[in-house]
Amino acid sequence: MGQVLDCREAAKIFLNNIKEESGKLMQDGINPTLAIVRVGKREDDIAYERGILKNCEKVDITGEVHECDENIDMESFTKLIQELNVNPHVHGILIFRPLPKHLDENVIKHIVDPNKDVDSMNPLNLARVFEGDLTGYMPCTPAAVMEIIKHFNIDVKGKKVAVMGRSMVVGKPLAMMMLKEDATVTICHSKTENLKEVVSSADIVAAAIGKAKFINSDYIKKDAVVIDVGINVDDNGKLCGDVDFEDVKDKASLITPVPGGVGSVTTAVLLKNVIKGAKLAR
Ligand code: NAP
After folding, report:
1. What is the residue-wise DSSP string for 119-147?
2. Superfamily classification of domain 140-263
3. How confident is the model at residue 258 (pLDDT cuts 50, 70, 90)?
4. What's the CA gap between 66 and 93, in Å, rounded?
5. What's the gap in Å between 231 CA and the centre of ligand 1?
6. pLDDT tens for residues 41-100?
């Protein structure tokens, strides 16, 4: 069986580093603070929020929740974001997405101050990633994949990487980050022809398609590295990835599990971004 990458353990190490940074900022009189903006009471948002707040506590970051009524109008919502933009105590703003249809995400993403945009929602931050400039805020999930790659010393230089999925939150920025590390990247999507052939020629497969256990061992080259970004629920109501873990684990050399994989590191990356924001306030 291939090695199952213990991303929870890696996340602990990342969080310890963040706590150290946060301690230094406190000594300078800065209390790193994340503002979470949630519209309505969606269960998955509340679960994600709980996880973030628990981790905030571990690393001495203040997490403050701004809960909005699900019918909040565009004007009031915009006003809230603008207030957070100019509030000197707030170093990072995270808006839970997707927003209800009546709040235009395409407008709001431009309103979030790029210097507080810890979820890389503002196209200015995304553009940097696409330019190969990784010094700004990177979207948390693809950045978590890259942290895992680095932490476990996975060599991507010159390797064939298949990124499955082309969303702006995961697939596309991840492909750019891999490219920056000199990987040879193929981006696959729902219209890709001969998907199995394309993916099974890759040394590293990063799956972000949102289809429970879709990727079986036929898609995986022997000894490939498999990073599963998917978070889905299977037919038995259990959390699972896009990869059929049981089927693939013996063929892969390294594989991330779900749960306990990329998702465990994503929040750590978010909090690392809050520290970055707090440093800008120094
Ligand atoms: P998304 O916006 O729905 O995008 C899915 C992408 O997968 C699209 O580009 C789609 O192609 C492609 N796709 C769908 N079915 C496919 C198929 N059969 N073959 C090849 N490509 C296919 O999803 P997302 O927001 O990127 O999220 C992807 C997964 O990651 C989800 O399971 C989500 O829950 C998970 N996720 C995890 C984290 C984390 O922290 N671990 C964070 C965010 C998301 P088209 O473009 O052609 O439609």
Report:
1. T--SHHHHHHHHTT--SS---HHHHHHHH
2. NAD(P)-binding Rossmann-like Domain (3.40.50.720)
3. very high
4. 10
5. 9
6. 999 999 999 999 999 999 999 999 999 999 999 999 999 999 999 999 999 999 999 999
pLDDT of 241 strictly over 80 = yes
86 Cα: distance to centroid of ligand 1 (angstroms): 34
Please tell me the distance from the alpha carbon of residue 229 to that of residue 258, in angstroms, as a whole number: 8
For the chain, the domains span: 29-118, 140-263
Ligand 1: residue whose CA is nearest its atom 5: 209
Question: Which residue among 97, 189, 194 is best mutated to probe the pocket of ligand 1, counting the most ligand atoms within 8 A of its Cβ?
Answer: 189
What homologous superfamily does CATH list for 29-118? Leucine Dehydrogenase, chain A, domain 1 (3.40.50.10860)
Residue nearest to atom 18 of ligand 1 (CA): 190
Separation of 282 CA from ligand 1 center, angstroms? 37
| Mutation probe of ligand 1 site: the residue of 141, 146, 229 with most atoms within 8 A of C-beta | 229
Give, in order, the Cα–Cα distances in Å from 68 to each of 47, 49, 65, 175: 16, 14, 9, 34
Q: What is the pLDDT of residues 119-170, one digit of tens each?
A: 999 999 999 999 999 889 999 999 999 999 999 999 999 999 999 999 999 9
Atom 22, ligand 1: residue with shortest CA distance: 190
Confidence of residue 232 (pLDDT cuts 50, 70, 90): very high
DSSP SS3 for 204: strand
- Beta-bridge partner residues of 95: 37
Element (H, E) at 34: strand 33-39
The answer to whether domain 29-118 and domain 140-263 are alike in fold is yes
Model confidence pLDDT, tens digit, residues 166-187: 999 999 999 999 999 999 999 9
Distance 145 CA to ligand 1 centre (A): 14
